[in-house]
Structures are given as C-alpha cells and as structure tokens.
Amino acid sequence: MAFDGITTAALTRELNEALAGGGISKIIQPEKDELLLTVKSNKVQYRVALSASASLPLVYLTPVNKQAPMTAPNFCMLLRKHLQGGQILRVHQPSLERVIIFDVSHRDELGDLVVRHLIIELMGKYSNIILTDDDDTILDSIKRVPFSVSSVREVLPGKKWFIPGADTKQDPLTVDPVGFGETVLASPYEISKALYMSYTGLSPLMAEAICAEADVEPRKKAADLSVVELDAVRAVFENFMRMIKAGEFSPNIVYENEEPKEYAMFELFIFKGMKSRTFDSVSGMITAFYGEKEEKTRMRQKSADLRHVVSNALDRVNRKAVLQERQMKDTEKREKYRIYGEMLNTYGYGAEEGAKSLEVINYYTNEPLTVPLDPTLSASANAQKYFERYNKLKRTADALKDQIEETRADREQLESCLAAIDMAESEADLAEIRRELTDFGFVQKKAAVTKGKAREARQKPLMFISSDGFTMYVGRNNYQNEEVTFKIGSGGDMWFHAKGMPGSHVIVKSGGRELTDRAYEEAGALAAWYSSGRKAGKVEVDYTERRNLRKTNGGKPGFVIYHTNYSLMAVPSLEGLRKL
C-alpha cells in the first residue's frame, strides 16, 4: 500500500504519544534529503527518521543511529538554531493529508518562547521537509522549489506554506451521510476511483478494500450504484473513518510467496486467507516491510551475477548436448556398414572388376540389398573399408554415450544450482553455490580464501518442526542435499523430493515412529516449496525411506537413484511448520 493518509494518521498518533512533551536533543542530516532527530521524552530516548526521498518518503521511529557528516548542511544548521533544545508540543496531521507537523516550542535570540513548525510532506516526488514560523511563513526547506520548477507553489524562505490541491478533495473525517451520497453519485468515475479522487488520504488500494468489504464491484460506475450498494459502501467507509478517529489501528504486513506484498493499518478483507504479520507499532511495521523488501531486492541484485554465470554455463552445456546428439545420430549408420562388410565377405566373389555396386540377398532379412562399391578396390578391400568405418563409428558411439551422460549430469547440476540461487536467503548461501560451481569447473577458481572464511561460508541445512513434532531438514543446494540425505538421514527416516525437477532434499526424522498423515502432507508441501515448482498450484513429490536411496558411481553431489517410492500431490507451502 502507498504511504497514504491513513498510514500517516496512524503514524502521527504513534509519534504524538511517544514524543509530545519531549525535548529535541540532537539533529543531524545524514543524507541530502533525510533528517534524524534525537528526542528525550519521559526518560526514554527516541530517534525519529524523516526522509523526503522522491522514491521512498518515510517517517518512523528507529533504534538505529546514523553518522553525521563532517560539515552540517545549511538546512541542518538552521534546524539546530530553531529547534534543538526545544520541546515538542504535539505532532499532528491536517485532515487526512500526507503531512505530519511537529509543533516545537523554542526560545529565540532574545530568550522569548516562540513556536516553530517542522512539516514533513510525504508526497512522492514532491516530498519535502519544511520549517515555518507560527504564521506559516517558510524559514527554509530541505528542497527549495522556485517558480521555475512549480507554478502551483513556491517553497522558498519568506513564502507562505500551504498544502497544494487541498481544496480539490473533501475531508473524509467530517463527511456526513447525505454529503457522501451526493459526492459519490456525482462522480463520473467507477466507484473505487470515485472514493480516492473525492476524499483526501485514500489510496486506490484502500478504496478497493472498502468496495470489497461492502461486496460492491469496484469497477462499477459510481452513478450506477443501487441504493443498497451505496448504503453498503457508505457504512464501510464510515466505519473505517470511525476507527481512524478512535486510533483503532492494527498495522500488518501481508505476504505472498513468503515475500512482503502490502502493508495496511487494518486487517483488510481483500487480503483474507493470505499470510500476515501484525505489529505493535507503525514504525516497527515500516521498518520490517522496507527492511525485508530491501533484503529481497539486495539478494536479487547480488544473485544476478551468479545467475548470469550459471545461465551462460547452462547454454554452453545445452549447445554441447545438441552437438553430441547430432554426432550420435550420425553413428547410427554404423550397423549398415557392418552389414555391407559382411555381405561382401560372403558374396564378394560375385562382384565384377570395376563394378560400382553388388546386388545381394541380406541373410538377416532375406531381402534384396544393394552394396555400394569403390570400383578401384577389390571386394575384400571394400569389405575392409566398411569394417573400418563401422569400428570407427562404434568407438565414437561408445565414447559419446559417456560424454552424453556427463553432459546430462552437468545440465542437471546447473539447473539445480539455478533453483538453489532462487532459494538463497543470504550471501553465505550464494557463496556455497559458487563454491560448488568452482569445485566442478563451471566457474574459474579465484584466489584462495582463508580456512576460517571458507568455514563461515558453509551454511547448515534448514530445520523445521512439523505440527506433529517431527523434525524436518531441508538442503538448499547440492552440497546440503548430500549432507541432509547421507549424513543427517538414516535408514528408517523418510525422504521427500519434487518429482522430475530441481529442488531440495527433505528428510523427516522418524525417531522410530510412524509418520502421521499430517506429517506426510507438510513434508510434501515443504519439498514442493523448496523446488523450482514453488509457484505452481500443485507439485508431485516422490517419497521413500532413506535406505532405498543410492548414489551413482562418480555421481554429482546431491543426486541419487531409487527404484522403490510413492508419490503425493502437494501444494507448495510452509503452513503448519515452525522454522528453527
């Protein structure tokens, strides 16, 4: 969800409860568009991060300190002059605007108490942090906006501060039932758009959430709503406004495929059935949401180079496989040459000198056969020539069989490495995959690392506890799969793996107990989740006792063969499992 007026309202309440009455003891500007205030309130020290970044404007309480630059920027020096040592009277929000205002009492040069306003506008690329006096005259801003940049509003010292476009939308906190109906029905838009275009602070997602909870199609034209539908939307809308006024917020993050998808201040009907995590504070939710988002993004960036290397290696292996298959197809004619040789040894006495062919009866099929001849050679020499061709192609075929098998193993290993990259959760996971690629010659070996660093790069397999108390181990790469199956797993334990696709080995430690149906389902879902079929609706999973698994001679790590197994269909999921 966008950082809308409702999120701003919840955050403003949180900031006011924590900071009102507190003193500003320190102000730093670690980035050109970011501030960090240190506030002491009720014997507790808080840090408030304020970012006017065009891509990610935020305000939140944070335990993290940042390094101040050697020379403070001019705006930071101005804030220290007018705010540092001052007392925060209150933190408030005009209507449901994406604006937070800190009212700060401070003594001026003459020792008189004056009030200054630190204003944070959370408006995407128009975000700003502005300092005004008590008459809303701008003293300065972290981003100056002259007339040449914006004809709507100049943000310069001496200019009056106001919220641009505030008169184009209504305040949803003061709307009455009659006014709501008139506003909505008069809108030319579909109902969801009519809501966020008519009222301050509503994001498109929140507007759709209101429609969903009212059981009204969000794409329906507002003017076409029936009386019942209009009443349903109004009732939901008014209930949300009531919760905002009462501060009944429930900050939560909604997850899709274990990645943070959206955050919201209420438990929304449109996310029903999806995994969610509730927080005690808006700041905690913001920190977790963007922290997890950043971690996922950072991992994707760091894995991009490794994925590129593996993809290139896989392309080379696939091209090699095509060439080998073509060469193998060419060797299929070897049997024809053997038969030609045998036919000439048997019937060659009938060949005329200088003949270009010999008609014979193939005694293998009892059918006529024409044997081509080199007219410059005798029948026996032609036969010898055919046997030489046969033997050469046979040797080639025998060599190609081994090469094709080796290429197939390389392809499977690289495909499993690609799947492991997708499942990697840390840089150490990527380091382990790179180590495997280096060990098997897919990546050029770099300068040796110290033994200590090499040990740090080796991660342990994942460990889960099922609903029924069974311990489950999951390998995230081929080396870990080898460890899970042949070191952690023992004879009577159960082994699970997604059928016919790269994925993790899952071992369920039976402890001498019979696995429950629930344990089989959760282990299957776990194996499906940690496989290349994660995004599929259902995945077929093979399972068998660990004692039925064998490694092939000279086989790659993490690759096994088995002939006794069962299968189940599983929905990729971690539901019911507790990760240790």
Describe it for me?
- The strands form five sheets. A seven-stranded antiparallel β-sheet has the order 20-19-17-18-16-15-21. A five-stranded antiparallel β-sheet has the order 5-6-7-8-9, with helices on one face. Strands 1-2-3-4 form a four-stranded antiparallel β-sheet.
- The protein is elongated.
- The protein has helices at residues 5-19, 74-82, 177-186, 191-198, 204-213, 227-246, 282-330, 334-347, 379-423, 427-439, 451-457, 478-488, 517-529, and strands at residues 23-31, 34-41, 44-51, 58-61, 87-92, 99-107, 113-121, 128-132, 138-141, 252-256, 259-264, 275-278, 357-362, 367-372, 462-465, 471-474, 494-498, 506-509, 539-545, 566-570, 578-579.
- Helix content is 39%, strand content 21%.
- With 580 residues, the protein is of the alpha+beta class.
